[in-house]
Amino acid sequence: MTAAVLVGLGGMVGALLRFAVDTACEALRARRRHPSSPEPPFPVGTLVVNILGSGVIGVSWGLLLNSALTSPVYTVLGAGLAGGYTTFSTFTVAAVLLWQGRRQVAAVVHVLAHVGCGLGAVWLGLLATGAM
Asked: For the chain, what are the domain ranges?
């Protein structure tokens, strides 16, 4: 029961952080984007949170592999914090919206950036902790 509560609290913190980062990215974009543009915007905030969340998973996993982190703490950081922070559902909806908005190149870049940068962030996290 205690682990579930800690994962839930970590998820809540992660979701709040995701909202803050996405809101900040949207505010920056709104300053530079023409308000009458009909094209769906490239989801920079989603990309940022998913890359950073992948890095958190990589570092946490590396610390777990090096016995510097216990399994319950890894679960709270991975399933809780990073799970609440990252968002696969928003990533997929954004890809579909870009595609439907006739921005196929942006949709493909969006998907490749998430997958490639996410994998790279996990790899760098493992590398930074000496797990690779």
From this structure: 2-33+43-128
